[in-house]
Specification:
heterodimer, A: mainly alpha, globular, B: Alpha-Beta Plaits, three-stranded antiparallel beta sheet, two-stranded antiparallel sheet, 6 helices, 5 strands
């Protein structure tokens, strides 16, 4: 039991540090990638290929002046970025990062917590994320911040529905809310990207919207709203907001790889005759490869597409994605009914 | 009837279903951005690699000496007069006995200052100079932390004796030929 607890603590620390590390270096990759797309080189002054740039940025944010607006609500002003960061980190708890590792007669699962309610948990926590933005935008007592917060919350409501319905078709197909079982189902049958291509498309678009990434970055639209909900923030509180976006990106990439791309499972690996521990390690590496690919895709989309207008955003959410996901749900139901 | 042949018919075509789902257009755009990732980058890594200047680039000034190392400037003030930015000031002095190896003519500039922040690097001073004393070089003016450091005196502007500066690119062959004329010989 003690060993089991120690393993969990180690796993939690590793995942926490890893998500922070990946989020940190996503900022560099994003800037590099943006540079390449625009025929530039991106940051390359700090260290070789700018490898120390995220460290410099972090240190700079820490040492910036901590400024709080005179009319801000003191408690909520601090609560906003803290909540955003907390919620962004919480989601990674239920993601199965790999199979099981066997050592000394015990087997350890590479999933921190969860089981029967994984997907519900993900949903609950992800939709909590918008509270951080809302509270921060409200507490700043600034028109731009408030507008950003209002946009964030209405966008979240509009896209949460379509996202939920897209996942509902997966739940119907696999018959479980457990992420590990969904991965096992995909391994036995077929990856969900083939079974649910429209569902994946809807989920991906909604994931872009939920993480406030371009072309859905209206809450922090710098050309209209100065910076949206984070206008009045400075120093590490601003850093938390910016950082949480990258952690969200990492986590939603992990969820997408798990739900639609078979998670940590490498197809036909069990025929290779490797030991189960090796399969687990390779599987985890494969999962991280998929996550990196998704993060790159997020960036690729961001630096390709311009931002939506607000009415276009609402139209896409309510008039296109929601009916489409309902249709997808109905078709999935019909197919399940007919093939049974 | 049209007055010019440049008028164009405006097309107000309705979007087809394929246009309306936007996805093909989005993929097209993404292909374009991905192509740019592999294109040659136009960035020049500045301190390691410097962009080439034109051969006749107009940068920081130099106060030339003649072949024997004497200052050519006679403080006539034509450069200051020609300067559209009024960046040049000078104080003249008379050459004393025993200073013939320092100054070429009887009068010389005791103080010669150019305010590098006022200067617009037009090169009118070198055009105005009758003694071929001031030229613009390819050297760029270095950055400083305070404004008064940009007022360059003779200590910076004067050509060092051991490191002569080549200004032949600032003179056209016509100018050099002109200076060979008997009346202009003293200008070489």
């Amino acid at each position: 039991m003690i060993i089991y607890l120690i393993f969990k603590v180690i796993l939690i620390s590793v995942i926490l540090l890893l998500s922070l590390f990946i989020a940190m270096y996503s900022t560099l990759v994003e800037r590099k990638f943006a540079g390449f797309i625009q025929d530039r080189l991106g940051p390359d002054r700090a260290g070789k290929w700018g490898i120390l740039q995220p460290v410099c940025d972090g240190v700079k944010l820490f040492f910036k002046e901590e400024y709080m607006p005179y009319s801000a609500d003191k408690f909520l002003y601090i609560l906003g970025p803290s909540l955003t960061m907390l919620v962004a980190l919480l989601t990674s708890a239920v993601i199965p990062w790999g199979g099981t590792i066997t050592a000394g007669g015990h087997s350890y699962s590479l999933q921190v917590a969860g089981g029967s309610v994984d997907i519900l948990y993900v949903f609950a926590v992800v939709s909590m994320g918008v509270y951080g933005l809302m509270i921060g935008g409200w507490a700043s007592n600034n028109k731009y911040s408030l507008l950003g917060a209002v946009r964030a919350s209405s966008q979240m409501i509009s896209y949460e529905l379509a996202m939920g319905l897209a996942i509902a078709s997966i739940i119907m197909m696999t018959g479980t809310l457990n992420l590990s079982e969904i991965i096992a189902w995909q391994n036995n049958h077929v990856w969900n990207i083939i079974a649910q291509p429209i569902g994946f498309l809807i989920f991906f678009i909604c994931a872009l919207a939920e993480t406030n990434r371009a072309p859905f970055d209206l809450p922090e639209c710098e050309s209209e709203l100065i910076g949206g909900y984070n206008t009045e923030y400075s120093s590490i509180k601003l850093g938390f907001y910016l950082f949480a976006e990258y952690i969200n990106m990492f986590v939603s990439s992990a969820i997408m790889s798990t739900l639609y791309f078979g998670g940590y499972n490498i197809p036909f690996i069990e025929k290779s005759g490797l030991s189960s521990n090796w399969i687990t390690i390779l599987g985890t590496a494969f999962l991280f490869f998929k996550i990196s690919a998704f993060i790159l895709l997020f960036m690729w989309v961001r630096w390709t597409l311009p931002r939506f207008r607000y009415d276009q955003l609402m139209k896409l959410g309510w008039k296109i994605l929601l009916p489409l996901s309902l249709l997808n749900l109905i078709i999935t139901g019909l197919v399940i009914l007919l093939t049974k | 009837m049209s007055l010019t042949n440049r008028s164009q018919m405006v097309s107000k075509k309705q979007m087809s279903f394929w246009d309306k789902i936007y996805l093909p257009a989005i993929f097209g755009g993404m292909v374009i951005t991905m192509k740019h990732v592999f294109m040659k980058k136009i960035t020049i890594r500045y301190p390691e690699k410097k962009r080439d200047f034109s051969e006749i680039y107009r940068g920081q000034h130099v106060l030339k000496r003649d072949d024997e190392g004497r200052e050519r400037c006679t403080a006539c003030g034509l450069c200051a007069l020609a300067c559209p930015a009024e960046a040049i000031t000078m104080v003249s002095a008379e050459r004393q006995k025993g200073e013939e190896h320092l100054f070429r003519e009887e009068k010389y500039a005791k103080v010669y200052e150019i305010n590098m922040l006022r200067c617009i690097y037009c090169g009118l001073c070198e055009t105005a100079c009758p003694k071929e004393a001031i030229f613009l070089t390819k050297k760029t003016v270095e950055s400083e932390y305070s404004r008064d450091k940009f007022i360059y005196g003779k200590d910076i502007l004067l050509e060092p004796l051991d490191k002569r500066i080549d200004i032949s690119n600032r003179q056209t062959p016509e100018v050099i030929k002109f200076k060979q004329l008997p009346n202009e010989r003293h200008n070489i």
